[in-house]
Amino acid sequence: MANIEPETIALLKRRLEEAERNIQICRQLINGEGEGEGESIAPISMPDDLSLEGISSGKVIYGAFDGEHMKGEDGQLYPVPANYASKSKLVEGDRLKLTIEEDGGFVYKQIGPIDRKRVRGVFDINEQGQYIVKTEEKEYRILLASVTFYHIDRGNTVTILLPTKGEAIWGAVENVLKSGGADSKEEPEEPIE
Question: Which is nearest to 192 in space by CA: 168, 169, 174, 170?
């Protein structure tokens, strides 16, 4: 087995626990078990009106991406698959449409990308085991799916996309420079058209 750093192992354990909780929620929804039976088992809350009746007719929910989830206009959080968020380069604040299909599947579509800027920084893993890009301004979290897709290593220079307005916690990986000689200065903050 490859030598894996303790921070990476801790993060992988947390991701597995989160995945197990999400699977448990799906099983409860499929089996018709109601909410309110003991403590919450998931980091996301499911809408009270999510029933077989609503699913059979196909339900559409609009919301905004928060870096990991879609916060629906109904105030609920809906899990956005990390691979979709990473491949689509979703940025905090992007408008999404969620269609809950008749079979219970979730289909997301980006319907309103917000204005973006590019920022360059250096990839690292913080003490909490979170994947981050350190810029001159601050640190931004990035998704594990982006790290694995781009094969990012500690010290790589990474270009991330951020909203042009407001504060962000998460960045969307756009590019990675693998060479160790690239500087890690922040690129000019230019809106992306």
Answer: 174
